[in-house]
Amino acid sequence: MARIKGLLVMDVDSTLIREEGIDLLGELAGSGAEIAAITSRAMNGELDFAEALNARVALLKGLPETVFADLLTQIHFTEGARELVASLHDNGWRVGVVSGGFHETVAILAQQLGIDYVRANHLEVVNGQLTGRVTGSIVTKEVKLASLKKWATELGLDMAQTVAIGDGANDLPMILAAGIGIAFNAKEIVRAQAPYQINEPNLALALEMIKEVRGEL
């Protein structure tokens, strides 16, 4: 079996994809502006993420579970996303996503790109409708960091062989712990602390950054 050379883990909303999935759900629920305002404050580190998530999810109560199919039609992969994942796979890497968004759409997006690891929140559905609650543990900044470490351990990698990419405050712990931590078109609080930055909306630029830092891909 070929040796695994590295692990890249990235955020989903405003990183792997251009949009914020929960904001789109909010628009479908008629609470778009209210949810978007909470999202912005949470991503800038002004609110506790778990509390902010629960507040936003509560505003989704009553939406039919068919809303996820509608949501997927409004989501677009960030430029370079397919190239990034494909190139890493071709070079013996594994790729994971950790999202404060929702497994119901994130898992499908990950499958479309052949992503190896997925962690996201699960929305509770009863009788075909969203209840306004999350089931299971919420994907917080601590869970994102723990996922990066867990997957690296499973692959027999040390943290120096990992890359983490994200844009929000809840991505900072994994960005700071990874061998290469990248702020991707990120909020000011993230740019101020991340070791590396990409300030263009093209994920493929991470490939050149990895080559430059590691001397290889």
Structural features, described:
This protein is of the alpha/beta class. Helix content is 42%, strand content 21%. The chain has ten helices and seven strands. It has helices at 21-29, 32-43, 49-58, 67-72, 81-90, 103-113, 141-154, 172-177, 188-191, 205-214, and strands at residues 6-10, 93-102, 117-126, 129-135, 162-166, 180-184, 196-198. A seven-stranded mixed beta sheet has the order 4-3-2-1-5-6-7, with helices on both faces. Helix 2 runs antiparallel to helix 3 (49-58). The protein is globular and about 50 Å long. Keywords: Amino-acid biosynthesis, Hydrolase, Magnesium, Metal-binding, Serine biosynthesis.
In short:
The chain has 217 residues and is α/β, with parallel strands linked by helices. 42% of the residues lie in helices and 21% in strands. A seven-stranded mixed beta sheet has the order 4-3-2-1-5-6-7, sandwiched between helices.
Relevant terms:
10 helices; hydrolase; magnesium ion binding; Rossmann fold; seven-stranded mixed β-sheet; 217 residues
What are the segments in which pLDDT stays under 50 over at least 5 consecutive residues?
none
End-to-end distance: 19 Å
| Mean pLDDT, all residues | 96
Please describe the biggest sheet, giving its number of strands, its sense, and whether it closes into a barrel: 7 strands, mixed
Radius of gyration: 17 Å
How many helical stretches? 10
Q: What's the total number of strands?
A: 7
Q: Record the strand order, biggest sheet.
A: 4-3-2-1-5-6-7
Total domain units: 1
Strand composition percent: 15-25%
Derived structural class: alpha/beta
Shape designation: globular
Listing every helix as H and every strand as E from the N terminus to the C terminus, the arrangement reads EHHHHHEHEEHEHEHEH
CATH class category name: Alpha Beta
CATH superfamily: HAD superfamily/HAD-like
Looking at the structure, the CATH topology is Rossmann fold
Q: Write the CATH architecture name.
A: 3-Layer(aba) Sandwich
GO biological process, one term: L-serine biosynthetic process
Catalytic activity: O-phospho-L-serine + H2O = L-serine + phosphate; O-phospho-D-serine + H2O = D-serine + phosphate
InterPro entries: HAD-like_SerB (IPR050582), HAD-like_sf (IPR036412), HAD_sf (IPR023214), PSP (IPR004469)
Enzyme class: hydrolase
